[in-house]
User: Fold these one by one.
Assistant:
Number 1:
Amino acid sequence: MTDEKQRLQLLLNASEEEFQRLILDIHDQPVQKLFAALAQLTLLHSRLSDLLPEQPEILATLQRASELLESALSDIRNLLSTFRTPEFTHRKLDQIIEDLIVQFETLTGLKVNLVQKEVPEGIALPVKIAVYRIVQEALSNVYRHAGVNEAWVSLYQQGNHLRLEIRDQGHGFAPATEEEGHPQQGKHLGLEGMRERVALLNGRLWIESQTGKGTSVSVEIPLHE
Ligand SMILES: Nc1ncnc2c1ncn2[C@@H]1O[C@H](COP(=O)(O)OP(=O)(O)O)[C@@H](O)[C@H]1O
Ligand SMILES: [Mg+2]
C-alpha cells in the first residue's frame, strides 16, 4: 500500500471528531509555534549581523536552524494537505460529492451508486461542509460495519430543502431512540456528530435500520434560513 493510500485509509477509519481535532490541534498549536520561532530566529539573525559582522559561523548556524524550521513547516503542510477537505468555497456541491465517492470507491473497492438531481448552485458553505462530512462518515460506517460491498447515495433538492440519503443492504443495527438517550456517547461519535451538524443547520436526520435489513441515513436541511 502506498503512503498516500495508507493515510487515506487512516482518515477513513478515524472518527469525524478525532479527525477534526487532529487537524485543528496541529494547525493551531505546533504550526503556530514553529512560525513564531522562525520569526524570532529571523529577527535574531538580522540583529546579530549588525552586532557581530565578524562572526559568520554564528550567522550560518542561525541560518541553518531557520532552514530546518522552514522545512519542518513545509512537511507538516504537506501532511495536512493530504487530509485537507476539498475547496468548498468555489466548488459546486455535486462535484465535491462526486469526487468524494470516486475516492471512496478507489480506496475501499465498494460500489457506490450515486444519484444527484438538481443540486442547486450557491449552497451556503456550512451546508456544503455538513453534507460532505455526513456522506463521508455514513459511507465509512457502511465500509466498517455493514458487511456489504455496495451502497447508495442520493442528493437532491425538494422544495426549500436539500435531501440526502445514504443507504446500504447490510447487517443493520438497532439505533438508539431519543428516549434511551445515547448510551454509546463518548465511544461512537460518528452518528452523534451527524446529528449535531444537522441540528446546527435546523435540519432533520433520521436513521432507519433493522438487523439484517440494512441501514439508511436520511437528512433534510433547509436551503434558505
Ligand atoms: N451502515 C451501518 N451498518 C451497520 N451498523 C452501523 C452502520 N452505521 C452505524 N452502525 C452501528 O452504529 C454504531 C455507531 O456508529 P458511529 O456513531 O458512526 O460510531 P463508529 O463508526 O465509530 O462505531 C456502529 O458502531 C455500528 O454498530
Ligand atoms: Mg462511524
Number 2:
Amino acid sequence: MKPYKQHILVCHGKTCSAAGSERLLELLRDKLDAEGLSGEIKTSKGGCFSVCKETEPKGGYCPVVVIYPQGVWYRNVSEKDIHEIVEKHIKGGRIIERLLHYKMQPA
Ligand code: FES
C-alpha cells in the first residue's frame, strides 16, 4: 500500500453530528471516489475536537473538518463546501480562508 497524501478528519462528536457531519463525510467520500482520489486521500471520523466549546451557545463553529499534513482546521463546513474543499484544498493545495478556523504551526 502506498502512503496516503492527505488525511481528512470529519468531527463526529455529538455537536458536529447534530450539525450534519455524518452527511458531510458521505459527500466527501463520494466526491473523492468520483475524482479517483480515494486511494490517495484518507478520510476518517474523528471524536470531538473541542472547537464546539469555543462559542456560546456551544456548537457555533460546527461542523469541523481537519486536514493533514497541512494542519488546517475548517469550521462551519456545509454540504455545499465539500466540492470546494476537494477542488481547492485537496487538488489545488489552497486554503479556503472563508472556512479557516486556524492553521497549526510546524513544531
Ligand atoms: S463535536 Fe465537533 S468539535 Fe466538538
